[in-house]
Amino acid sequence: MDVTAQCPALPNMDDLPFSRDRDAAWDALLSAGPVTMSETGVYFLSTADVVEQAATNPELFSSQGAFEMVGSPFPMVPIAFDRPEHTRYRRTLDKFFGPRRMAERAPALRAQLGDLIDEIKASGDTCDVISQLAVPFPSQVFLTLFGLPLSDRDRLIEWKDAVLQFSVADGGPPAPEIVARAGEMLDYLRTQLDACRGRRGEDLLSQLVNDPGEDALTEQEVIGLCFLFLIAGLDTVTSAMGFAIYELARDQDLQRRLRSDEAAIPAFLEEVLRVGSTVPHVPRKTTADVEVAGVTIPAGSECWLGLGTANRDDARFAEPSMIHPVRQNHFAFGRGPHRCLGSHLARLELQLMVEEWNRRIPEYSLESEPAVHWPNALLHFEEVHLRLGSVTMR
C-alpha cells in the first residue's frame, strides 16, 4: 500500500511565517491535516487529539532511538528511554524535582534575579531583556541546582552553545572549536563529579553521585542528565521568559493587573507557555503499524508530535491565539509518562522572574517589535528591547 497516497503533505517548514506571524504559521500546519508527511518521510502529528493519543501511548510511539539525531555521546536521561529504564530514572529523579523541593530553591533564586534586574536598571532606560536576563538567569539556576560556582556562568553559556551546535551539526562533523568546547565541558563535569564523591550536600550533583539506592544513576547517566539540562532546560526557559515579558510589555493593563495581583501570575504563565510553544515538536518512533486519524503509519517510522499545533488547536482551546485569564492543561510540557521532568523548576523560574521584574521595574514597554528566530528547533526571540519607563512602543 502506498502510504503517501493517504497522507497529506507537510507544508515546507522553512517557509512558514513564524518570524513575522506565528498565528498564520500554526494555522498553516493545522490546516494541512491532523497527520502529514514531510518530503523525507517523517510523519507530523498536529491536532490535540492525535498528539495526546501518541504521547500517552509510549508502547506504540517510542522515545527509544527517537533522539539519535541529537548525537549525544551520553544517555539522555530520562527522555530517550521507555519503560522499564524510564520508570527507574523517573523514580530516582522525581523526588529531586517535585514542587516542594523546587520551592526550597526560591529564596536563593529570587535574590539572584534581584541582582540581575538591579544591574539592568543601573545600565540605563533601555535593555535587551533576553541577553541581560533571560539568558544568564537559567544558567545560574543550573549552577545553583547542581552546586556549581556562579562564577562559571559565562563559561557554561559558551559550553551550552557549543553543545547545541554539536547536536545539530548537519552533513558532517562539527567544527573543531565546537568539539573543543564540548570537551572542555565534559572535563569540567567529570572534575565536579569527582569532587562530589563522599561529600554531603544539598545540591543535586552531590545527592546523585552519593545516592545509595539501588536505582542510583551511574556517572555516565549523571553526565547525560547534565547534558539534557544544557540542551533542553536552559534555552527553553530563556524562550518562555522572552514570551512572558513580551506579552506584558505590549499590554499595560495586563502589566498593572499582575503587579497588583500576583496570585494571577501562574495562570498567565500557563497561557504564555501554551501560546508561545517554545518546543514546537518532540520526536518519537513507531514500534508497530498504527492508524492515526485515518492514516496508517508503518512500524519504525519517525514521528514528530506537534506540541505547538496541539496548543493552537481551536477544538481544544477556544480563541487559541489569545492569552486568557484562566486556562490550563496545555501541551507545552508534553503528555503521558514523558511529561517534562523540569516542569516545576521552569514554572518556579518564570514565576520568580515576573514577580521580581514587576516589583523592581515600575513601568516598561516594547521599544521595537521582536522577531521570532526561524527556522530553528526552538521558537524564541533573539532580542526583546524594552524601554524602562512609561514610553510606549514607537
General description of the model:
Helix 5 crosses helix 16, helix 7 crosses helix 8 (153-167) and helix 12 (235-249) crosses helix 14 (265-276). The protein has helices spanning 22-31, 48-55, 85-97, 99-103, 106-122, 129-134, 136-145, 153-167, 176-196, 204-209, 219-232, 235-249, 252-260, 265-276, 307-311, 343-360; strands at residues 35-37, 43-45, 61-62, 126-128, 281-286, 290-292, 295-297, 302-306, 364-366, 385-388. The chain has a single domain, classed as Orthogonal Bundle (Cytochrome p450), CATH 1.10.630.10. The protein is an alpha+beta fold and 394 residues long. The strands form 3 sheets. Strands 1-2-8-5-3 form a 5-stranded mixed β-sheet.
List the helices and strands and how they pair.
Blueprint: H1 22-31, E1 35-37, E2 43-45, H2 48-55, E3 61-62, H3 85-97, H4 99-103, H5 106-122, E4 126-128, H6 129-134, H7 136-145, H8 153-167, H9 176-196, H10 204-209, H11 219-232, H12 235-249, H13 252-260, H14 265-276, E5 281-286, E6 290-292, E7 295-297, E8 302-306, H15 307-311, H16 343-360, E9 364-366, E10 385-388
Parallel strand pairs: 2-8
Antiparallel strand pairs: 1-2, 3-5, 4-10, 5-8, 6-7, 9-10
Short structural summary:
This protein has helices at residues 22-31, 48-55, 85-97, 99-103, 106-122, 129-134, 136-145, 153-167, 176-196, 204-209, 219-232, 235-249, 252-260, 265-276, 307-311, 343-360; strands at residues 35-37, 43-45, 61-62, 126-128, 281-286, 290-292, 295-297, 302-306, 364-366, 385-388.
